[in-house]
Amino acid sequence: MEFRIARGDLADAVAWAARALPARTPVPVLGGLLLTAETGRLAVSGFDFETAARVGTEAEVAAPGRVLVLGRRLLDICRVLPEGPVSCALEGTRFTVEAGGTRFGLSTLPYEEYPALPAAPEVYGEVDAGVFATAVGQVAVAAGRDDTLPVLTGVQLRLEGEEMTLSASDRYRYAVRRVEWKPGAGTGGEGVEVLVPARRLMEVGRSLSRCGSVRIGLDPADGAGGVVGFEGGGTRTLLRRLEGRLPGYGSLFALPGAAVAEVDRGELAEAVRRVAVVAEADSPVRLELSAPDGSLLVRAGYGDDVAAQRVPVALHGAETVAVAFNPAYLLDALNSFEGPGLRMELLGSGQRVLLGDGVRPEAHRHLLMSVRQLV
């Protein structure tokens, strides 16, 4: 195996594939990156049973072949290589990397012990890469972090017609985002739901955000064990599905007779950020809305350690409403919206609140459960 490649191309490919490397693993070969050199191309792959990443790039291949090397060590080497062409070769059991008079040698891992990479599923449709990355970020903030409840650590994708719906919940908040997407010719327009790890999907969204469009592939397997593929810009990432599905949000988002408040999102976020500095670890930020004076009082703290700020608001359908939230959850929700205007639907004091974009509230919604005891 022998090839020459531009330093930037090699570094980018290795960095991409290294995202799939596990932080710790009892299986040493899973810490490796698989390099496959073929005519005019180099492919770099990483795999940890939950995620598989593969990226291809142009290279001058003198001798085709494949080699498995320590992924993080190769990543460190790529970061310090001098600019210019890089020559790589497999010499016995050593993989060499040489550029600008600097030469590195890497021991290789047993390729025969490396698990077979899952096959890429059939493309089901595609979505604008930038829109997809933004939507994933907007809902993933509501996903849980408790691995003992894996269903709540995922983002659920529903593909139906020309619409993709992304949703996530950790039981205390529930975020939903709808975007347009282009289904493939053979999909038949049937609705499909898949649940994938939120943290991994965030990485995929960020890394593909500038590639124009993302092609999404679905494995025919149902539930856990199947994979979902994301392709764009010469790269491909496969995420293993989580088993189960999120609870429905229809009844949660139905707020009959709710009061409606309209407020400047940025001004409210800044007020929450200010007053939260006096809040203890488990202390909420309280929002007290009053229709007569057209203001929203943002308060935090107890006793002498308190902070408060008033924010203009238009409240319809109620005289006064008081709710309280975990400040981090509230800021996550406020910062997930893009527009300046925010619509708040309030079921009543101490009850849940549904946030929506001021222009298109149905496109992006974020539900927060209020802390019931207010002081």
Write a structural description:
The chain is α+β, with helices and mostly antiparallel strands and 375 residues long. It folds into three domains: 2-113, DNA Polymerase III, subunit A, domain 2 (DNA Polymerase III, Chain A, domain 2, Roll), CATH 3.10.150; 122-240, Roll (DNA Polymerase III, Chain A, domain 2), CATH 3.10.150.10; 253-368, DNA Polymerase III, subunit A, domain 2 (DNA Polymerase III, Chain A, domain 2, Roll), CATH 3.10.150. 18% of the residues lie in helices and 44% in strands. The chain has helices at 7-18, 71-80, 129-140, 198-208, 250-253, 265-275, 327-335, and strands at residues 2-6, 32-38, 41-47, 51-58, 60-63, 65-70, 85-91, 94-99, 102-107, 122-128, 154-160, 163-169, 173-180, 182-183, 192-197, 213-218, 227-232, 235-240, 259-264, 285-290, 295-302, 305-316, 320-325, 341-346, 353-357, 364-368. The strands form three sheets. The protein has a twelve-stranded antiparallel β-sheet. A nine-stranded antiparallel β-sheet has the order 6-2-3-4-18-17-16-10-14. The protein has a five-stranded antiparallel β-sheet with strand order 5-1-7-8-9. Strand 11 and strand 12 (163-169) form a beta hairpin. It is elongated and about 80 Å long. The mean pLDDT is 91.
